[in-house]
Each structure stands twice: as structure tokens, then as C-alpha cells.
């Protein structure tokens, strides 16, 4: 793994200040320290420093095989081919809106090995921004460097309000196009140009591992020089106060969303952020999926309860 080619960094102190401010706002929140024996504090420290972190071998091998089979089934049933833009990859199969393609995919955003870390980074009222597969086929060239939140017009660096969690459904190797990462670039003040040449680190990991990165981290899909496909699912989360990349309330048929586990329904936007954002006619939209115990809206909370995210059902 090579490091170097540092991006233009702005004062890191600024970043720290913004981050501290967010923690103060979240006062009263339970600190999540462990998920499945994973030391979340240590992982979080790596994530803050580098802008990415790998959790190795945390997904059950049976689930990895099941996801792979399902990706192949959806691709076959829908006669899917390669994408037709350079950014998406002309030797790449991408399946968007995966949650609408069957219950196997419902397990991904709420998996106990990954969700606690996402909650720690974004807070417990986070959302699923998108769930899609990215299958790099042999011959796929390197993707342009980019940051996932580069279209959001907020000065950088800033606290993470988007977080990608890529599930390796096959081994990720330098040869098969493992995601290329620019360590520390989440603290940069600018964005990469698409034709920029930079030293990168390959996010190598065995199948069944996950790679998290901060939405501001500069990264790109690699060049698949192998003879095999590189399978992954990109489970992208965002904070509860910004727009999801995929419009899940319209993209997932309501009758399907009704069958989701409750936590997945909340993550897909059938919830309110801080008891305000996302309400429908002064009520928690979880009620539209037949749930009766939605959270109290901000107007029903006392001042002290204002920052309590799940203030419980109305009395
Ligand atoms: O395929 C990868 O490794 C990363 C893809 C990516 O960053 C994207 O499509 O936005």
C-alpha cells in the first residue's frame, strides 16, 4: 500500500471544532462503544484520522454467498448490462434501489456489525441514502477520483453527514479493482479534478469485510485487471437532516416497505429527524406503514426533550 500525494488541507482545528459542536448538540445520547465485539472507539479514531476504516471478516459467509446469488439473480431476471457512462463504468453492472429487490438486501443496512458504527458517526437518526451494487467486470478501468458529498454546497472540511459502507461480496484486491482511497483527504478544503493523478491506497479486504468512508473522502473504483468480477454492495448512509440520494419512499413499493423490519423503515425515511423533519400532517410517517407507536413531534416535547431523538409515543 502506498501513501502520499497529500491533498490541500485546511486547518484541521476547524474540523475538530465543528465536530465538537455536533457532540454538544447530541447531549443525552447513549454512547455506543461496542458492536459485535468490534472496538468502535478504536475504529472511530482510525476513521477520524484517515477518513476510512475497514472492518475485516464481520459478515457471515452464508450471507455473503446469499447476496452474491441474489445479485446474479436480479441481474439475470432484469436482463441488466453494463452502465453507459464513464463514471458508472462501461464494464460495470450497477443495480440501484436494491431494497426493492428482495428481503436478502433488507439485512444489509441494519446489520449488527455495521449499523452501530454508522450510528456513531452520523447519529442514531441517520438514514439510508442508497443501496446499490457495483460489480466491476474484467477490463473495467479506474474511475475518476471524487468525493461522495462533492455536490453538497457546504464549505469543506465539515463533519461527516454522509458515510459510505461498502460490503465486499468478493475479495477486494488491488488487481480486481479494490476501491482507491486518498487517506486524510476528508480534511481537504477542495475537491479532486476528475483527471487528477494522485497516489492512493487500495482498500484491500477479504470477502465478508466492510469498508466505511467519510462522504468527503477522495476515492474511486479501481481498475479490474483480473479475470474475475469484483462484487460489492455500497450501502450509503446520510444524516437525518439531508436528502437521501435514492428516493426510497417512491422507489420502494409501499406494500414492500410495510414488510420491512421497523428499523429499516425508519432508516428509509419513514421517521422524523429530531421530531420535526419528515413529518406528515403533524405525525411520524411510520404510522403510514401501520405502526402505531410513532415518536412524539417537537411540538409535543418539552424544551429539555428537544434533542432527544426518539422521545417515544405521544401520551
Ligand atoms: O466501486 C468502487 O470501489 C467505488 C465506486 C464509487 O465510489 C462510486 O461509484 O461512487
Mean pLDDT over the full residue set: 88
Strand content: 5-15%
Please, how many domains? Answer: 2
Strand order of the largest sheet: 3-9-6-11-5-4
Low-confidence stretches: 1-34
Instruction: State the end-to-end distance.
Output: 56 Å
Shape: globular
Radius of gyration: 19 Å
Number of helices: 8
Amount of helix: 10-25%
What is the annotated CATH architecture of the largest domain? Sandwich
Keywords: Dioxygenase, Oxidoreductase
Protein name: Phytanoyl-CoA dioxygenase
Pfam families: PhyH (PF05721)
InterPro entries: Phytyl_CoA_dOase-like
Describe the structure.
The protein is built from eight helices and eleven strands. With 315 residues, it is of the alpha+beta class. It folds into two domains: 12-238, Jelly Rolls; 271-315, no CATH class. It has a six-stranded antiparallel sheet with strand order 3-9-6-11-5-4. The model is unreliable at 1-34 (pLDDT under 50). 2-oxoglutaric acid is lined by residues 134, 143, 179, 219-221.
Main attributes of the structure:
315 residues, alpha+beta, Jelly Rolls, 2 domains, six-stranded antiparallel beta sheet, 8 helices, 11 strands, globular, binds 2-oxoglutaric acid
Amino acid at each position: 500500500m502506498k501513501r502520499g500525494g497529500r491533498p490541500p488541507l485546511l486547518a484541521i482545528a476547524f474540523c475538530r471544532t465543528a465536530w465538537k459542536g455536533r457532540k454538544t448538540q447530541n447531549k443525552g445520547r447513549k454512547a455506543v462503544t461496542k458492536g459485535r465485539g468490534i472496538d468502535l472507539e478504536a475504529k472511530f479514531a482510525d476513521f477520524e484520522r484517515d477518513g476510512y476504516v475497514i472492518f475485516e471478516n464481520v459478515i457471515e459467509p452464508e450471507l455473503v454467498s446469499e447476496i452474491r446469488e441474489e445479485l446474479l439473480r436480479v441481474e439475470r431476471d432484469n436482463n441488466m448490462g453494463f452502465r453507459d457512462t464513464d463514471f458508472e463504468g462501461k464494464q460495470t453492472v450497477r443495480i440501484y434501489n436494491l431494497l426493492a429487490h428482495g428481503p436478502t438486501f433488507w439485512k444489509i443496512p441494519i446489520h449488527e456489525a455495521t449499523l452501530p458504527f454508522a450510528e456513531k458517526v452520523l447519529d442514531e437518526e441517520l438514514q439510508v441514502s442508497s443501496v446499490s451494487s457495483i460489480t466491476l467486470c474484467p477490463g473495467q478501468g479506474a474511475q475518476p477520483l471524487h468525493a461522495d458529498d462533492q455536490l453538497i454546497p457546504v464549505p469543506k472540511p465539515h463533519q461527516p453527514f454522509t458515510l459510505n459502507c461498502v460490503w465486499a461480496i468478493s475479495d477486494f484486491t488491488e488487481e480486481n479493482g479494490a476501491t482507491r482511497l486518498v487517506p486524510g483527504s476528508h480534511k481537504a478544503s477542495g475537491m479532486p479534478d476528475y483527471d487528477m493523478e494522485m497516489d492512493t491506497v487500495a482498500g484491500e479486504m477479504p470477502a465478508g469485510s466492510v469498508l466505511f468512508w467519510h462522504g468527503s473522502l477522495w476515492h474511486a473504483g479501481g481498475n479490474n485487471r483480473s479475470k474475475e468480477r469484483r462484487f460489492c454492495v455500497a450501502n450509503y448512509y446520510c444524516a437525518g437532516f439531508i436528502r437521501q440520494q435514492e428516493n426510497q419512499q417512491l422507489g420502494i413499493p409501499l406494500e414492500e416497505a410495510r414488510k420491512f423490519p421497523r428499523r429499516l423503515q425508519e432508516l428509509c425515511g419513514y421517521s422524523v429527524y429530531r421530531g420535526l423533519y419528515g413529518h406528515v400532517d403533524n405525525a411520524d410517517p411510520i404510522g403510514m406503514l401501520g405502526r402505531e407507536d410513532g415518536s412524539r413531534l417537537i411540538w409535543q416535547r418539552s424544551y429539555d426533550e428537544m434533542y432527544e431523538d426518539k422521545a417515544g409515543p405521544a401520551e
